[in-house]
Amino acid sequence: MKSLADLFGPNPPSNWGKWGPDDEIGCLNYLGPAEVISAIAEVKTGEVFTLQVPMGSDEPHGDPVWPPRMPIERQNTLDNAMFDSGAAPDLPGGLRYVDDTATIWLQGSTQYDALGHSWYDGQLWNGYDADTTNGAMTKDSILPVAEHGVVGRGVLIDMARYRGKKSLDKNETFTIDDVLAAAAAQRTEIRHHDIVVLRTGFVGSWCAAQSREAFMADFGEPGLVYSPELVRWFQDTEIVNLVSDSSANEVFLDPDTGFMLPLHAALQRNLGVLFTEIAWLDDLAGACAADNRWSFLYVAAPLKVVHGTGAPVNPVAIR
Ligand code: UVW
């Protein structure tokens, strides 16, 4: 087997064209006013959980970021010392302020991937030419997703808890059957048009590490593995968004083929499922486990970065 196309076989599950030839938001089309209204009914206690990891952590573990990418570099351009030294001129009336700039990898924190973020065989989600990524994405960027926003019913499946662990091990895998078994064990119903939130504990274990270097020394993420059944399930269940606390939402190298990120190809590129990665899920999972209630109102809007390949986001889960 040489390529993803070989792995998927002829006529793999696809949603291309389902929402017209100009679509750039894929399964986000499943979320409309009816889904918003019914998701609001998931709010019972009013607890609010923010799901972004901090950007620019001062802790020894640093920011959880996929290794080739780097954490945010933020620097002050103006602060009190500059006013005191005369480097910044006094303002009429004496008001002072602090300012800063940042260099960020748009995929370098908790983030939404643009639907065109990954592809194979020269075409992005909905059939756009891969050359539309050159220089700046002109199709399938994060902008249309950001303009729509993501509001719906979130459902958390805690794979780590299901396996009796604080966190799955590095490179530990699980299948769609495991996800469904974990949901059944939690007595959690996954519904059509849900936002599926998978907790592996990976980001939690990164944030508990003694140092960034120590954690990255034998870097490897736990994650979901590709199967044709998994792809059919996502298509049939019309899942809008896959959220997880790893940087890829899947195990990095498929254990059977050695291919890199086949779920990006099968779900993001072929079905138009949105991916949210590096989410902070431990606090939300703790609350869900405490009262055995695993569904919530999920609200997220990535930043409106024109031509962005993705964008940072601070999703909010309201229980
Ligand atoms: C890659 O790792 C290429 O992408 P992502 O950040 O979506 O996992």
Description:
- The chain is an alpha/beta fold.
- 26% of the residues lie in helices and 17% in strands.
- The strands form three sheets. Strands 1-13-11-5-7-9-10-4-12 form a nine-stranded mixed beta sheet, sandwiched between helices. A two-stranded antiparallel ribbon has the order 2-3. The chain has a two-stranded parallel ribbon with strand order 6-8.
- The structure holds acetylphosphate.
- The site of acetylphosphate has 8 residues, from strand 10.
- Uncertain residue segments: none
Give the overall silhouette: globular
The number of helices is 11
How many strand units?
A: 13
Q: What is bound: which ligands?
A: acetylphosphate
* Major β-sheet profile: 9 strands, mixed
Percentage of residues in strands: 15-25%
Computed over alpha carbons, the radius of gyration is 21 Å
Task: Give the helix proportion (percent range).
Answer: 25-40%
Instruction: Return the string of H and E elements.
Output: HHEEHEEHEHEHEHHEHEHEHEEE
Q: If strands are numbered along the chain, what order do they take across the biggest sheet?
A: 1-13-11-5-7-9-10-4-12
Which structural class should the secondary elements be placed in? Answer: alpha/beta
User: What is the residue-averaged pLDDT?
Assistant: 96
Distance between the termini: 45 Å
Q: In short, what is this structure?
A:
With about 325 residues, this protein is an alpha/beta fold. It has helices at about 5-10, 35-40, 80-85, 145-150, 160, 175-185, 200-205, 210-215, 230-235, 260-270, 280-290; strands at about 50, 75-80, 100-105, 110-115, 150-160, 175, 195-200, 225, 240-245, 275, 295-300, 310, 315-319.
